[in-house]
Amino acid sequence: MSPEQADLLTQARRSLAAAKAVLELGYTEVAVSRAYYAMFYCASALLRGEGLSFSKHSAVIAAFGRHFARTGRVPADLHHGFVQAEKARLVADYVAGRSVPAEEAGEQIKRAERFLAVTEELIGACSAEP
Question: Do 44 and 80 contact (CB within 8 A), yes or no?
């Protein structure tokens, strides 16, 4: 694992920890956003291992699907969950007055936990705590 990948995994772990903490406080929209970012950082770390880097979220999502889900390196539903998480994040971050149910936020956190676990299986666990 490169230092850059380790930094991205640290960011992923911190985002996941933040998602869990804010969900307990009832900030479901923030929890959804942080869970998405945990997945985003994991996907970015995996892509960096391929020598790829993107500035747009849509490019990261598409490249992750192309290089990891379509090739069978990760389960296809992981990519689908990533796409769903981005949609949920956009609603949570930008749709005024939209309340996210706690169950939905909890589901996004579970997706992020699985995403991190699969990422660590592929490139190794990061020893740093959030």
Answer: no
d(CA 128, CA 40) in angstroms, rounded, equals 18
Calpha distance 100→41 (Å, rounded): 22
In the numeric block, the tokens 């598409």 are attached to 62
The total number of structural domains that make up the chain: 1
Judge whether 99 and 25 are in contact, CB under 8 Å.
Answer: no
Per-block mean pLDDT, blocks of 10 residues, the chain (130 long): 90 97 93 96 94 92 94 92 91 80 92 95 61
> Backbone dihedral region of 75: left (phi > 0), alpha (psi from -120 to 50 degrees) or beta?
beta
In a domain, 41, yes or no: yes
Domain housing 105: 3-122
* CATH code, domain with 30: 1.20.120.330
